[in-house]
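Lecture notes, unit on protein representations.

Consider one protein chain, 301 amino acids long.
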Amino acid sequence: MKYIEYTIYPPAGKVSEVSDMLTALGQEELIINDPDEAEAFFSKDGGYKWNYVDQRMLEALRSGAYIKFYLPEGEKLSDEIFSYVKDFDYSLALTDDEDWLHKWEEYYVPFYIADSIVIKPVWRDYEAKAGDIVIEIDPGLAFGTGSSPTTYLATRLLKKYMKAGDRLLDIGCGTGIQSLVGAKLGASDILAVDLDPEAVRSTAANAGLNGEESLISVRKNDLANGLDYVADTIVANLTGPLVLELCKDVRKNIKKGGILVASGIIDDMEDACKEKLESIGFRCIEILRDDCWSAIAAVKE
């Protein structure tokens, strides 16, 4: 399928303002390059180890501000959005959805997601160091390359609290990164679920890439609704509202003394998620934060 690619070039310092306005006007799916934000992200202390980030990617991020969005070929831009963007420099290009699938791959390189755990794109070479745990990932069309703060936070807590021999339930598995981390850390059995069929396919494929297909079972499911699987550890990299929704049903899926790791919580929902978990019989034992994101580890009392 072909699409029209709209690229807007906001003035310096106006990227957030323009992207917020486009979202308010109904164009919610945006690709944003803000050099100021990129500079802050890659210079922060105590977070990711960016040893393996390609310099070409850094140069591209710092090369200039732009906002992109796409409409199917033949679909008209709304009058409201056109009225707004016509006062900026902008360009149009015809592109194909296959281009999106492969173009970003040249910038996706191996990186540490937590301590010794390395996420490695399947098409990249990587010489493992002593003690490295290497996880091969081919994201395909599913969400989750492992580079988001929410995945990083979830991985750190999972690595800290999951014990070898645990049964693991991965809710909202995406590309299967948390399931694969659990497998590499010695989980005895893993069930990964996601509502998105593409995520289910991607997690199953990545389990195969890492030789863990016999350990990781994958199925389509809406959160924990209807699941009869009982785990020692649950990891749920979702969103704040979905964590609250998960709390309605998840208690039955975890053993007494088991650990629930909930990530993807925006900072203004942290208190609500913590209180909800405590109201259903969990005790929060650790909260990690990264910029505006939080992840909570809680034990079932």
